[in-house]
């Protein structure tokens, strides 16, 4: 079992928020082209789930994948360079925001087509199971993808073949601009998994410790040979569907209510408040334990924030200074062949 380090989880969430806010600024300045789907508000899911992943596990993500890539270990500079279309980007500057890919870290990509993650994860899961390898596949998707045929087809086959896949639904309640009660007959997404006899739970996706615990347990069952598992994390995105979406379809009161549940602010409060904090600041027992243990004080928190800001500043500057890919670079990418064995023919080193 992974030991839980609250400060590590907080650091990952702060890095995620800083990466995305920096990307938003670059997009607003016209230096990032195309669509840009941002993650603020959902950081607890990525931090909690990916803290449980082993180096040999495979990650399949959606078009909202920058944070998944960062927390999987892809350097911020490689992500920024990709967003800016530079040759030092993680996909050579030719994938852009929705197509980050890193074979070394077994990050099998972000995919722009809604529901495309399912068959990709299914194929990876089959390859791993066929070779009796110890890895798991973590498949991220949103609530808007669960009405796709690929969802049902893939869950059925994953259950039938008992594939080592953790299905992770990031339920932020909106399929672009359509609220889940208006696009789904079954709004409790995790209940859909019962049709395929896949164990499923619904978890508060704004609580990073709850996310981490549920993910750890689900992955342990997968590694024990119990077949696929399904976790639905209720979360919320603070921005619109993409940078081109002002999100006017959401009531301001709803957005404000979720912002008051900001997982980063809550965790900062838990870790930085001293043991003699005023009544109400440490409602849960864990919060009180963190205060008493003194995991983090205000000075250390400020230092952490400054360290992350500097990391993002340096990464962005390096990415901006990089060259754009040339025609030769493009030709090299198309001529490069990855063997199947490069991904699934052996266990993790």
- Gyration radius, rounded: 20 Å
Quickly give the structural class: alpha/beta
Biggest sheet overview: 6 strands, parallel
- The global form is globular
- Average pLDDT over all residues: 83
Helix content: 40-55%
Which stretches are poorly predicted, pLDDT < 50 over at least 5 residues? 273-292
Helix count? 14
* Corresponding CATH architecture: 3-Layer(aba) Sandwich
Count of β-strands = 8
CATH class: Alpha Beta
Taken together, the total number of domains comes to 1
Note the gap between the termini: 20 Å
Strand order of the largest sheet: 2-1-3-4-8-7
- Beta-strand content bin: 5-15%
H-E order:
HHEHHEHEHEEEHEHEHHHHHH
CATH superfamily: Thiamin diphosphate (ThDP)-binding fold, Pyr/PP domains
User: CATH topology, what is it called?
Assistant: Rossmann fold
Task: Looking at this protein, list some descriptive labels.
349 residues, alpha/beta, Rossmann fold, six-stranded parallel β-sheet, two-stranded antiparallel ribbon
Structure report:
It is a single chain. By secondary structure, the chain is α/β, with parallel strands linked by helices. It has a single domain, classed as Thiamin diphosphate (ThDP)-binding fold, Pyr/PP domains (Rossmann fold, 3-Layer(aba) Sandwich), CATH 3.40.50. Helix content is 45%, strand content 11%. It has 14 helices and eight strands. β7, α8 and β8 form a beta-alpha-beta unit. The two termini are 20 Å apart. About 6% of the residues have low confidence. Keywords: Oxidoreductase, Pyruvate, Thiamine pyrophosphate. It comes from Igneacidithiobacillus copahuensis. InterPro entries: DH_E1, PDH_E1_Alpha_Subunit, THDP-binding. This is Pyruvate dehydrogenase (Acetyl-transferring) E1 component subunit alpha.
